[in-house]
Design goal:
Keywords: Membrane, Transmembrane, Transmembrane helix
Oligomer: single chain
Radius of gyration: 41 Å
Protein name: DUF3152 domain-containing protein
Distance between the termini: 125 Å
Largest sheet: 6 strands, mixed
Strand content: 5-15%
Number of helices: 5
Low-confidence stretches: 74-99, 103-133
Order of helices and strands: HEEHEEHEEHH
Organism: Streptomyces griseus subsp. griseus (strain JCM 4626 / CBS 651.72 / NBRC 13350 / KCC S-0626 / ISP 5235)
């Protein structure tokens, strides 16, 4: 029998397959956005993040390396005590070293008159390095000399270790070079001095290069040599210029009216103060009333409430410093 079509329907075209009207679905794919596929985009994003991290790590590493190089250069530059050399070789006419002349302000002015402490004798007694027994008076000290120097040879250690230094005394001063060198060596090697804790070591030489040269000279010669470095000593004070430490004969023989102690102790202050400049230290001032004056203080200008002191360290190894002077 022939199937009857439901009313209102059209005959199916010839060859058209049967369809299940209840289950037929038309699936239309969602539109694609232009660009990379989603998987590739995520991979590219992760790659960019990793590159940024690598670049940051590389930048941090380069910064740290640069800081290490700068720090190493700072340690190697300006260390006069290394290799027996030092500030050596500063040419005459160069700028004045930090701190200027010992115990004198820069620019220099005439210091105010000061009254010696009651306990201080008016004429200190010279020690063995003075070359004579008895008192040394100001009028006994020559104002000028020939400008030639005799090198100390006693105590020379040509093969030892440490910063090489030489001691020279101007001819005609009456100071024995070898005995002066003995005093200076004792100061440099003292446990309260700059050799404290083995931080520095010094050896005396007579010939060959020396990064530090300590010269004891008449006031006029001291003025002339210090003047080559732009320093004014007025015939009264000491200075350090380049590798040269100029010790004024007046101060070596008479000490200072501000320093309440023997001349030998004041000589220790001269050496410690000027060698401190040679090691790169600047001036300091009194840390407080009744406390020891720093060795780097200009004590000849007044103690400002401090107590006279010749040494950079105390007996317990503590540094006796004070506020830095601008």
């Amino acid at each position: 029998m022939t199937r009857r079509r439901p009313a209102g329907t059209l005959p199916r075209a010839y060859g058209e397959p049967d369809r299940d009207e209840d289950t037929f679905r038309l699936r239309v794919p969602p539109p694609r956005t232009p660009g990379r596929a989603p998987g590739r985009a995520r991979t590219a994003a992760r790659s960019r993040v990793r590159r940024r991290r690598r670049n940051r790590r590389r930048a941090v590493s380069l910064t740290v390396l640069a800081l290490v190089v700068v720090a190493g250069a700072a340690l190697l530059v300006g260390r006069p005590w290394q290799g027996g050399g030092g500030p050596a070789d500063a040419a005459p006419g160069s700028t004045a070293p930090a701190g200027g002349p010992d115990n004198a302000a820069e620019p220099l002015e005439e210091p105010p008159p000061s009254t010696p402490p009651p306990s201080a004798p008016p004429s200190p007694t010279a020690s063995a390095s003075g070359g004579k027994d008895g008192e040394v008076r100001a009028e006994d000290i020559p104002a000028s000399g020939p400008g030639t120097f005799e090198v100390a040879r006693a105590g020379v250690d040509a093969k030892g270790r440490g910063s090489a230094y030489r001691v020279e005394v101007e001819d005609g001063t009456g100071v024995d070079p070898d005995r002066a060198a003995e005093e200076i060596a004792a100061v440099l090697a003292h446990p309260r001095g700059w050799s404290h804790g083995g931080e520095q070591s010094f050896r005396q030489v007579a010939d060959g290069p020396a990064g530090l040269v300590i010269k004891i000279a008449t006031p006029a010669t001291t003025d002339r040599i210090c003047g080559q470095y732009g320093l004014k000593t007025r015939g009264e004070v000491n200075c350090r210029g380049g590798e040269k430490v100029m010790v004024n004969l007046k101060r070596w023989q008479l000490g200072s009216p501000q320093f309440d102690g023997p001349v030998s102790e004041y000589r220790a202050l001269i050496v410690n103060h000027e060698v401190g400049h040679w090691l790169g230290r600047g001036h300091e001032t009194c840390p407080g009333k009744g406390r020891p004056a720093p060795a780097m203080m200009q004590q000849i200008d007044g103690l400002k409430g401090c107590v006279a002191n010749a040494w950079p360290y105390d007996a317990r190894g503590r540094y006796l410093g004070g506020p830095k002077v601008p």
